[in-house]
## 1
Amino acid sequence: KAGVTQTPRYLIKTRGQQVTLSCSPISGHRSVSWYQQTPGQGLQFLFEYFSETQRNKGNFPGRFSGRQFSNSRSEMNVSTLELGDSALYLCASLSQVGEAFFGQGTRLTVV
Amino acid sequence: AQTVTQSQPEMSVQEAETVTLSCTYDTSESDYYLFWYKQPPSRQMILVIRQEAYKQQNATENRFSVNFQKAAKSFSLKISDSQLGDAAMYFCAYRSRVNTNAGKSTFGDGTTLTVKP
């Protein structure tokens, strides 16, 4: 069974630009969650999608958004990038018994 | 809101010895999951062990076991016969079983484990 796939693995963007990250969950998993990991703030929950609906949202500004498609693939978008958005962005796919399986992450650097 | 606290930023253990990582959490819910994840330098977050709050029996996965004390809201991880490959950052995580919160995990700040040969 293929794992969670995140693309791209690495990204360098300039302040003010926008970025879109992609996550393909494990086949059959309908829930996808996104997390931001930074040395200073640790792992912070961004949002969760279940069957194309946002079910939960963390405490992030509106510049952070996401969506989920009918095949459960999810994208997250960050607009008007700031230096502080530099982080590892992790996507997790949730099984029906509550286990979260993570992708390898996308390392975003904002310069 | 739930919180997860890992009070040990760093731990070290000699190869083949046993080490215990601590985790406490705070919640008003009665039905939830607790997890330990391992994140090696490759950054891939790997599930180590899972505990359902309604189960009194402590979970065990090979060399990894937990001591789950629900009343004390404590969830420690014991690694027996430590191996060099166990070196990583370990995160304790909480997830509600309430449907609307089911997709959100709350993580502790992590414990960096060093294994000495």
Note: The first strand of chain A starts at residue 5 and ends at 7.
## 2
Amino acid sequence: DAGVIQSPRHEVTEMGQEVTLRCKPISGHDYLFWYRQTMMRGLELLIYFNNNVPIDDSGMPEDRFSAKMPNASFSTLKIQPSEPRDSAVYFCASSFSTQETQYFGPGTRLLVL
Amino acid sequence: GENVEQHPSTLSVQEGDSAVIKCTYSDSASNYFPWYKQELGKGPQLIIDIRSNVGEKKDQRIAVTLNKTAKHFSLHITETQPEDSAVYFCAATLPGGGSYIPTFGRGTSLIVHP
């Protein structure tokens, strides 16, 4: 397996624009997680899915953020409209269960100007 | 929910020295404790994990110890090398799946000086 795949790897956009981050989890994994990492706040869990169903989105900062998982092999995290404070590295991770290893993707480095 | 504290936030050692990172957790029911290493520009990767039925686990230069009574666990790296320089995260997980997912510590930046 190629591991967790994220795209794009880097994104530079202007404030107010819509940003869509994409993730392909490892085949067979039932859990998918979206994290945001910044120097100030560390690694924050935004939302996670179990069998394509969102379980907990309490970490999503505000209504500008939304996430979907239309099928077992694809998930998106959307920010609309984007703001400079959204600049961070966004990671997607997947796992078989909550008691097993989380496999992280390489991350998307987002810069909102 | 679970709460995980990790210390120190930064650790600087000389090559060859040992490094110890400590984490405490709040819920005594937690039973799975993974450690992740994040190298610059990459996502975190699991380096070792321990379950609550075990007190210690070792893998070459890396070991993890768990004290369930005190609710803390530690990562030990011996004979450190420059390539050990990275950010290390601990996590604690409550059993049951579903809404119980790993809670991560804030991370420790380990710097190994050649």
Note: The radius of gyration of chain A is 13 Å.
